[in-house]
Amino acid sequence: MSNQSSEEDLPPFPEPEISSLILENKPNAKLHYTYYPASTSQPHHPNPFAQSLIVFLNGLLSPRSSWDASINDFLEKRISSRLPYPALLSYDRYGQGDSDHDPDDPDPPPSHSHDAMSAVRSLKQFLLQIWKEHLDMSNPSQFPSLILVCNSIGCALARLFSQTYPGTVSGLLFLDSVIANSDLVSIWPDPSSPSFDPLTLPPGTTTDDVLATRAAYLQTFHPDVPNDEGLSRRNLATLLPSPSSPSLEGPDSQPPYLTVAGHDWATFADQCLTGSLRTPRALTMTYMNPAWQRYNEGLVGITHPQRAIGPIIAVGCGHFVQKDGPGFVADEMVSLLDRMVNRVEQMAEHDANERASESNPSLHSSLS
Hints:
Blueprint: H1 2-8, E1 17-22, E2 30-36, E3 52-57, H2 68-80, E4 87-91, H3 116-134, E5 145-152, H4 153-164, E6 169-177, H5 207-220, H6 236-239, E7 257-263, H7 265-274, H8 281-299, E8 308-314, H9 321-324, H10 326-359, H11 361-367
Helix pairs in contact: 2-10, 3-4, 7-8, 10-11
């Protein structure tokens, strides 16, 4: 009976707002989004995330709906534990999902009409308008403290956003980031190279397998390949030449909290074999997986070591982690928030002790 009463006392599940808006600097084109309000502050228990916003940044092939299961899992975990949570926002970039194409794009899709920096600038304007519309005027803030949850090229956009607008991003969750400084073709051995030795290939694979794999990646993933979003990747390696730099700056000149997660090697290799690429499993395990792991290891360097976790493995998940493992994403979001709020509480306790010691010299003496 007490359990039933306890469940009935739980806060209600938030009702999402599913809507669209037009950017002030890009008329006649709608961006569609889903917005969940932050949990309500209670007497003596203010929501430490009242001025925070979790933003989900999609990959090229994943619209905002790909985050729905992860968002539901996350909210259920926070609500059932009676823990506060920030507002949450997923959206379709221009040319994705329900959103219109970028009105500034000169060419119809598939195309290279705008680059990652254009997407970043549009995101900043989008967030300004969203936050203004949903701002709690009793506790105003010019711009929210952002927590970016990202997959694939969304991780590159998150890095560029954090670099371009320092002081805005307090937390980052990277889910199998794109290898931004690679064309993904050169990761594989090149049979046309004078140094190529077919005897070094993993057992059960052939030179023809390597040629077919390189051709498939060239046709599908090379930066010169246009996409229906119109988001060009041609200059991505120039924008982000290193996985580990530059270092990012969060609010109050502090480095952001960061979790870097990579795909499960075996799951990814299986999906590459059975999917359209038809890449032999041994090739993926020998060349692509180690290269991706090295890149993820570099990503940890964009923040202070004490604020970084990873790279960890999303067990059972391929590249689209939120699709294969929404529970994993929710758990890592919870973990990231807990790290952030614990730091907030520690700083508040530290400030309280400092004030007490200033007003009571004998207390300062005992503490030291």
